[in-house]
Amino acid sequence: MPKIKLFLWKAAAGALPVGAQLVRRHISSTWDCARCGAPETSTHMLFHCDFAAQVWNLAPLQLGHIPIGTPILEALNLLKKTIVLPPVGIHTATLFPWICWHIWKARNQLIFQNSHFSVIETVTKAVQDALAWQSAQLALPKVRVATPRPNSTTTLTHDFLCYVDAAWQQQSSLAGSGWVFQATSHSEKEITTFSAGCRRFPSPLAAEAWAIKSAMLHALQLERSDLLVLSDSKSIVDALNSNVSLNEIFGLLVEIRSIRNRFRSISFQFIPRLVNSIADAAAKLSLCISGNIGLDPGTLVFV
Ligand SMILES: [Zn+2]
């Protein structure tokens, strides 16, 4: 469900407003868990607080142990492998996201409404919602959404596609970059590499140019020297294809043109933002992760 996807994404990116985060952002002076008084991190709230542990124990899941200190992304990945035990009747929907969601809701009810949800109530509500979601999905007609593809004539002449994007935050002037390599020889969309970084830049255009430059350098590192770079920044793609200069990013364009000579074959193509959603998400995520864990600008993160 979209709202739960967003919730889990926030949890994975360390962006949930739990006590530890609120203290870090100077919104609150105490990070104590409202139930047990321990420091409230996302993993504590979702897995290790006594209440959460009891909810997971009662849930009809074949669940392994999640040791204290397990990074949240690792914990969520472990949960993805859990099996819903019969006879709950949940087949296509997975239960664990609903359990995480209802532990979070129970926590908020306690803090903001002072109302207590019991362990049984929390598990029951999660199972009910998962079942309701499952039957709603089964009742939906199957719709195939057509995604626009990059120009296929150009695509076929290169060994690799590189979707690249940047996300830029005006307030901090921090930029995140993201790119995805895809081999053109496979009929299915195979994402071969994904990486991202974070740095300060004066404008979104500069951030886009930096993302393209970083992706090209990474392609050379991986010996992918036959590349089609796909970007949703039309002005940069136009500038690179016409050898026109843009004052704002003069230096970066010079660098990109020089790196370009090291490729066996390279082209640049504009694509609409809609088609660039994975690189866009990667860029936003890198910006968010860097902001949250205090990564030094300039650090390249390979995910
Ligand atoms: Zn607690």
UniProtKB/TrEMBL annotation:
**What keywords would UniProt list here?**
Signal
Signal peptide (UniProt feature, chain positions): 1-20
Q: Which GO terms describe its molecular function?
A: nucleic acid binding; RNA-DNA hybrid ribonuclease activity
For the keyword RNA-binding, the answer is: no
Any idea where the Reverse transcriptase zinc-binding domain is?
2-56
SUPFAM superfamilies per the UniProt record, alphabetical:
Ribonuclease H-like
Q: Which InterPro entries match?
A: RNase_H-like_dom_plant (IPR044730), RNaseH-like_sf (IPR012337), RNaseH_domain (IPR002156), RNaseH_sf (IPR036397), RVT-Znf (IPR026960)
- The record places domain RNase H type-1 at 164-285
Supply the PANTHER family for this chain. Answer: POLYNUCLEOTIDYL TRANSFERASE, RIBONUCLEASE H-LIKE SUPERFAMILY PROTEIN-RELATED (PTHR34146), RIBONUCLEASE H-LIKE SUPERFAMILY PROTEIN (PTHR34146:SF11)
Q: What is this protein called?
A: Ribonuclease H-like superfamily protein
Specify the taxonomic lineage.
Answer: Eukaryota, Viridiplantae, Streptophyta, Embryophyta, Tracheophyta
